[in-house]
Amino acid sequence: MGSTYESMNDSEVARDIAVRLRAWRVDPRGAGISQVALARLSGVGVTPLKRFEKTGGTTLGNLIGILRGLGLLDRLETLVPDPASPGPMELLEAARRVKPPRTRAPRTPLPASSTEGVRRG
């Protein structure tokens, strides 16, 4: 998704988000609700909701309401990472520091009885 959006302009990204949210709204495995029901749940009027689904244009407040009405508001929490949280490379380095490197087990000397009678070359 990230690389796809990188190649799109802002209007295309907004339109794609609107298409995806509309698909989620109508799909029975998603929200499975009508525009009227979503308008009631979200607090966004039917007209702005129709405009959003057609063009992708809406206000941030309306988008939040739509996400809330669709039960997707919690998805916004992962939209922007916490700058104080460690990045992937920092997590990898921390894991390497915690986990001791693998070492080979020391060889155990053979008991004296097992070496008797063995000729060496």
Verbal overview:
With 121 residues, the protein is mainly α. It has a domain at 2-74: lambda repressor-like DNA-binding domains (434 Repressor (Amino-terminal Domain)). It is built from 7 helices and no strands. It has helices spanning 2-6, 10-26, 35-42, 46-55, 60-69, 88-98, 112-115. It is elongated, with a radius of gyration of 30 Å.
Short recap of the structure:
The protein is mostly helical and 121 residues long. The chain is 54% helix and 0% strand.
Strand residue percentage? under 5%
The chain-level structural class is: mainly alpha
Low-pLDDT regions: none
Order of helices and strands: HHHHHHH
Number of helices: 7
- Corresponding CATH architecture of the domain at 2-74: Orthogonal Bundle
Count of β-strands: 0
Please estimate the helix content.
Answer: 40-55%
Shape: elongated
